[in-house]
Design a protein that fits this description.
single chain, mainly alpha, 7 helices
């Protein structure tokens, strides 16, 4: 049986979903919804709300709500951009960094639990394949 792109995409998406679902309680304990976690995970790489919305494929109006909630929870703060005083950059607070790290640890533990079903050799091959698909060097 040949796996086509749609089948592989679906399996990958399903794996992400079941991993996130398995960590729902840990995220809730941290005061995070799933999409809020994604915002915290991506904000350092994409610190401007419009850029963050594009990176996460979330509508700008929804991003505004997530940012507002994360600011209210003390996980993010807005700072005026020194290079363009009309723009606000989003920055993780210490609490936001802690929440992000704890959420990432929970997700990594769940993913590791699933990876334990795969041989070390296959894990190495999976890493190689994923990096190749992302055009990232080993």
């Amino acid at each position: 049986m040949t796996a086509d792109g749609a089948q592989l995409w679906t399996l990958n998406q399903r794996l992400l979903s079941v991993t996130m679902d398995a960590c729902h309680a840990e995220l809730a304990e941290l005061g995070l919804e799933t999409k809020e976690f994604f915002v915290l995970a991506e904000v350092t790489a994409s610190p401007y709300p419009a850029e963050l919305a594009a990176a996460l494929m979330i509508p700008k109006a929804s991003m505004t709500v997530y940012v507002r909630n994360l600011v209210a929870k003390g996980f993010l703060r807005r700072e005026i951009d020194d290079e363009d005083l009309r723009r606000h950059r989003l920055v993780l607070t210490t609490e936001g960094e802690t929440a992000r790290e704890r959420a990432l640890a929970a997700l990594a533990a769940e993913f590791d639990r699933r990876l334990a079903r795969v041989t070390p050799r296959d894990r190495t091959e999976l890493r190689r394949i994923l990096r190749q698909m992302l055009d990232t060097p080993e």
